[in-house]
Amino acid sequence: MAYDPNNIFARILRGEIPCKKVFESEHALAFHDINPQAPVHVLVIPKGAYVSMDDFSAKADPAEIVGFVRAVGDVARLIGVDANGYRILANHGSDAHQEVPHLHIHIFGGRHLGPMLAAH
Ligand code: AMP
Hints:
Elements: H1 8-13, E1 21-24, E2 28-32, E3 40-46, H2 53-59, H3 62-78, E4 86-89, E5 105-109
């Protein structure tokens, strides 16, 4: 899938729409999810134009990968979920129900999160 430069997270990165920012570095931005699914629900996105982890893992340069992965850990510690635990999740494509086509890692925490996937 080609990257859509008008997706909502690209617009947040350009400052065209606001976010509740919790962290920013050279390679990453983190902000609160607008529709939280847990007491703590923060999204971490790379600043580069990557649709998903599929795209990022294939094309990002090493500095972007290191910067982004470090940011995920830094954000988890910053928001205080490292001690009790947290879950990270990144959706890719339609089977995973990816809604926003810019790579984002969800960080969930603040309560016991139960089993990994909901039963069907
Ligand atoms: P996904 O299904 O993995 O693509 O998740 C997209 C996430 O982005 C959802 O959890 C949404 O609630 C969240 N989201 C959508 N628009 C915004 C926004 N403007 N600011 C913060 N989070 C958003």
